[in-house]
Amino acid sequence: MKQTKITVAGAGNVGATAAFIASEKGLGDVVLIDIVEGLAEGKALDMAQAKAVYPAAGRVVGTRDWDAATDSDVVIITSGLARKPGMSRDDLLAKNAQIVKSVTEQVVRTSPNAIIIVVSNPLDVITYVAAKVSGFDKRRVMGMAGALDSARFACFIAEALGVHVGDINGVLMGGHGDDMVPLPRYTTVAGVPLTELMAADQIEAIVDRTRKGGIEIVNLLGTSAYYAPAAGAVKMAEAILKNTRQIISSCVYCDGQYGIRGEFVGVPAMLGAGGVEKVIELKLNAQEKAMFEASAAHVRELVAKVDTMI
Ligand code: NAD
Q: pTM to 2 decimals?
């Protein structure tokens, strides 16, 4: 039987962490690729040695040669610039669009049947770039943001309530930006709606901190987060590779759902062997709908801009 294969493009903070988590979870063979000489090779060698400490299935290799990615089942794209203090995700658009375009061309050449998970920012529009350049069936291209943003939401709720984070189902949708749409009405703690457990102003403070969760870390670290983003991407890859059909908020192609036609935006999606198996439609109230539409409109503006660049 063929070993499952995951390629991670970009061996920087997010990419190397994603490769390490996938390697230690034994999800399959892991190929880590970067353009910087020695970077992917060195980090992968270190990870291979970690496997001797905590053994798990699969090999891990690092390289600059895309041929090593041949026949990957999943490719996680993290290549590109990350935010520094004072930058918005949108400031990364021109550079990252070109980088992800060239990476996607290599994915098409080496792994025409792969499922692509984009992590590079600005997430929603870069996911569109990967979909357009690859020409893949839209169910096989998606972006990671909701997995991270809902984890941040859950983490802050757990801290405030003093409960186990695993008991929280944080529900959130929209684009990966300040206009993301956390959904307290659908968020539960061991099945109990969050709105029954916290006062409205306390929920609002957590929603606000979630929206600004990225910049909080950029300001502390001087660069963007990577442990939770990498974990989010691997969680999506695992759902696909193991065909779990788990529902994970992801940036996916909407074809009429939520009134969005022909665009990539963050919504709850069932992930499995075919990629996006289903978009889950929640009933939104007028306020949630307005927030979601504003978020989608922002993504649409950036897509119009990027279309002139690629
Ligand atoms: P990083 O600078 O640590 O790593 C990026 C790596 O990409 C570098 O090692 C660089 O050499 C490599 N690279 C550049 N061009 C390449 C190419 N053509 N092929 C292969 N590799 C190439 O950055 P990071 O912190 O790992 O972040 C990566 C991206 O992920 C950024 O765009 C960042 O904004 C984004 N990000 C997204 C989320 C999210 O929620 N979607 C969260 C965190 C970071």
A: 0.98
Same domain, 70 and 198: no
Annotated catalytic residue 176: yes
**DSSP summary character for residue 174:** S
Domain count across the chain: 2
Backbone angles phi, psi at 303, to 5 degrees: -65, -40
Q: Which residues of the chain have pLDDT under 70?
A: none
Determine the 3-state secondary structure of 217 from DSSP. helix
Q: Do residue 32 and residue 125 come from a single domain?
A: yes
Model pLDDT for residues 10-22, shown as the tens digit of each residue: 999 999 999 999 9
Residues linked to residue 143 through DSSP beta bridges, in sequence order: 118, 251
Site residues for ligand 1, CB cut-off 6 Å: 9-15, 33-36, 39, 78-83, 92, 96, 99, 102-103, 119-121, 123, 144-145, 148, 176, 223-226, 229
Both 159 and 301 in a single domain? yes
Clarify whether residues 118 and 202 are in a common domain.
no
| CATH assignment of the domain containing 61 | 3.40.50.720
Report the candidate in 227, 211, 216 with the shortest Cα–Cα distance to residue 172.
Answer: 211
DSSP 3-state assignment of 17? Answer: helix
DSSP structural state of residue 4: P
